[in-house]
Amino acid sequence: MANNGMMGTKGLSNLYINILPSNMRPLLLVALIIFVSLFSFFSPMEAEAAQIPIPGMEINFNEAESPEDVAVTVQILLLLTVLSLAPAILIMLTSFTRIVIVLGFIRRALATQTTPPNQVIIGLAIFLTLFTMRTVIADINENAFQPYLNEEINQIEAFENAMDPIREFMFRQTRERDLAMFMEIADEPPTEDLDSISNTVLIPSFIISELKTAFQMGFVLFIPFIVLDMVIASTLLSMGMMMLPPAMISLPFKLLLFIMVDGWNIIIRSLVGSFN
Question: Is 16 among the domain residues?
Fold first, then answer.
């Protein structure tokens, strides 16, 4: 029976070879040789790979043998929590909000659609935030982070020392009207003692003040470009070119105006100066 099967397979292969044209038969022979070689090459590798065990990973929760083990576990959980909240902390407690909103307004005023792209705007906003907050960061590193690493203070003292320069920065940028509004909402009596104002009142007041300042700067940025759009639209209307979009003609003039006045220098200088 085996001989009959081999004869049947051989006869079938001979039939396929005879069907092909004579000029295609060498190509079929080469293809068969390559296929047999690849099969013989990958078969030992697959057999060897099948023998390699797949590693596994287990997470065990054991009882703590000492109070130090519990403290280390709590510190790890707190560190993971802070890392997950880092973007919100960056946005809500620093100058990032005002900077990124103003940069977005200038892109809208220029009508350049997605130029510069969001990645460039966010990256520039992050580095400008580090620049404007450099004194606060240095203060936190000197009075909170380094003493904590040297085990001179505990976690609570490190947090309080880190919040002091941040609170001072937020108080300088927060309007009294916004602060009074949130104190009224929280049913807290008016006070001139800034240390008695809680962070839950100060942080939203700071955010509202930053949004208002950013929108004011955006309004000022829009004025010259709106005037340029109106002049070009009136010129095209007087020339009878009503079918030509004014935005298409005004875009190169906006870019030319922005370059001639060194717009990026003015915007960055105004942004950085607004925090002093």
Answer: no
